[in-house]
Design a protein that fits this description.
single chain, Alpha-glucosidase, alpha/beta, binds beta-D-glucopyranose, 525 residues, alpha-amylase activity, Immunoglobulin-like, O16G_dom_2, five-stranded antiparallel sheet, eight-stranded parallel sheet, TIM Barrel, Oligo-1,6-glucosidase, domain 2
Length: 525
């Protein structure tokens, strides 16, 4: 047993936007395979691929019509096998995304459910109910869709079905044994092909309160991850993961499950990573914390304590395909860029595992000014154009060259890349000594070389207000200045890495900057 996940650096590939191998303007599996060397030189341990299964793409592929195949837009099963084999040759593990909470409305089961009469077993794979009101004209309860509007849609015969997301993503009924059995087969299908594990979409959602009670709340979505809701984080969901864990453990090679779970407290989140359940759960607390020393410290202390209690490690996440990119979240422009780079160094030095969302290693900002007619996120349409949604963090990767789409595709990219990304391309940053990419590569190489980093203990060091410093082992310190003014620090060790473009270390830490100090032992270098 290596317990590789306990301190793995996992890189999230948003498949549509990473690299296009066939020139149709949409990223695909062949494109990813060609670009794997970028991930090797970045120094990550594993890759998580967002859904690439056949899908009408009502929600970027999180609406799956067939869990055992590849959408032609992204390639074929043979392309998947080739990508997996190449990744393994290069020493990269591969996680695939599974979407068990809901299917696409184009899934054969949903077609069968619609064709069947109310009460038919075909309907029981989903959550169909009669409506309220004299003629059933009102939804069965007051639940809201995460994407806005009611979570129920009425079908021709008058019944309603539940969809916690878009109406084209009907929720499965996980109390139905057929659903459970089929999903086990889906997992086995990918495990047999050799995947190293799964990122489990909406892992907190599969079991709903059996009575489907009203929440009585006017606004429910702000409670996601902060409060209790009868459709999320129900105790019974853990039975499913106990069962899946047995399946994972029956395969050779430490296959893992990672929960995308939103729970009301970090204690409840830690329940997903108890020893007989999943291996990791995304810890979104750092991503949600404002840029401030006390907030970051509180999150670290709490996250480490709650996961330690169940014997697991935590995961550090600054961004993903659902949230505004860190550069923009932390203030945009130069300030946001400095903070995002410091936050990365801070998180890479913490105990546990780290997730890097594609483009973070280039310091990409959110694209805020996409034209309305190219936006594809259902949040944009369901909010009547009031919420821009998540397309701004899904703009394709800039690889090289002087003009959009910067080597992403030989065709026109599905979302336009900004002209200004000319200086942000991988090729450009490779040739510049002080680029974000260089900082990421240096830091991840050090993380591998220094045994005290990754899994293990952390000890806080006393520092002036606005600065956080912690020690890992006797010879390593990470210090981060959350303020804007420079602070003099008395810390031992030589400079290993710093988040700003400066060189050398004179004992003064500029604002919005993180620094790694220490000593590399000969034998570990
Ligand atoms: C995914 C989203 C998706 C939603 C519904 C999530 O949490 O990360 O991108 O829209 O699940 O599947």
């Amino acid at each position: 047993m290596t317990n590789w996940w306990r301190d793995a650096v996992v890189y999230q590939v948003y498949v549509r936007s990473f690299a296009d191998g066939d020139g149709d303007g949409i990223g695909d599996l062949a494109g990813i395979r060609e670009r794997l060397p970028h991930l090797v030189s970045l120094g990550v341990d594993a890759v998580w691929l967002t859904p690439f299964y056949p899908s009408p793409m009502a929600d970027g592929g999180y609406d799956v019509a067939d869990y055992r195949d590849v959408d032609p837009t992204f390639g074929t099963l043979a392309d998947f096998d080739a990508l997996l084999a190449r990744a393994h040759e290069l020493g990269l593990r591969v996680l695939v995304d599974v979407v068990p909470n809901h299917t696409s409305d184009q899934h054969e089961w949903f077609a069968a459910a619609l064709a069947a009469a109310p009460g038919d077993p075909a309907r029981d794979r989903y959550l169909f109910r009669d409506g309220r009101g004299e003629r059933g004209e009102l939804p069965p309860n007051d639940w809201e869709s995460v994407f806005g509007g009611p979570a129920w849609t009425r079908v021709a015969d008058g019944q309603w079905y539940l969809h916690l997301f878009d109406p084209r993503q009907p929720d499965l009924n996980w109390r139905n044994p057929q659903v459970r059995a089929d999903f086990r087969e889906v997992l086995a299908f990918w495990l047999d092909r050799g995947v190293d594990g799964f990122r489990i979409d909406v892992a907190h959602g599969m079991i709903k309160h059996p009575e489907l009670p009203d929440t009585g709340l006017d606004e429910q979505i702000s409670l996601l991850g902060h409060g209790e809701l009868p459709y999320f984080d129900q105790d019974e969901v853990h039975e499913i993961y106990r069962d899946w864990r047995q399946l994972f453990d029956s395969y050779r090679g430490e296959r893992i499950g990672v929960a995308e779970a939103w729970a009301s407290t970090s204690e409840r989140l830690a329940r997903y990573v108890r020893p007989d359940e999943l291996h990791q759960a995304f810890n979104f607390a750092l991503l949600e914390a404002p840029w401030s020393a006390p907030d970051f410290r509180r999150v670290v202390v709490e996250s480490l304590a709650t996961t330690a209690e169940v014997g697991a490690t935590t995961t550090w996440v600054l961004g993903n395909h659902d949230v505004q990119r860190p550069v923009t979240r932390y203030g945009d422009g130069d300030l946001g860029s400095r903070r995002a780079r410091a936050a990365a160094l801070f998180s890479f030095a913490l105990p546990g595992s780290v997730y890097v969302y594609q483009g973070e290693e280039l310091g990409l900002p959110e694209v805020l000014d996409l034209p309305d007619d190219v936006r594809q996120d259902p949040i944009w349409t369901r909010s009547g154009g009031t919420d821009p949604g998540r397309d701004g963090c899904r703009v394709p990767m800039p690889w090289s060259g002087d003009a959009p789409p910067f080597g992403f595709s030989s065709g026109e990219s599905w979302l336009p890349l900004p002209e200004e990304w000319k200086t942000a391309t991988v090729a450009e940053q490779e040739s510049s000594g002080d680029s974000v990419l260089r900082t990421y590569r240096d830091a991840l190489a050090l993380r591998r070389a220094i045994p005290a980093l990754g899994d293990g203990e952390l000890e806080w060091v006393d520092t002036p207000e606005g600065v956080l410093a912690f020690r890992r082992g006797p010879d390593f310190v990470c210090a981060t200045n959350f303020g804007t003014e420079p602070v003099a620090l008395e810390l031992p060790g030589e400079l290993l890495c710093r988040s700003d473009a400066a060189t050398g270390w004179n004992g003064v830490l500029p604002g919005s900057t993180a620094v790694w100090l220490g000593k590399i032992h000969e034998e570990s270098a």
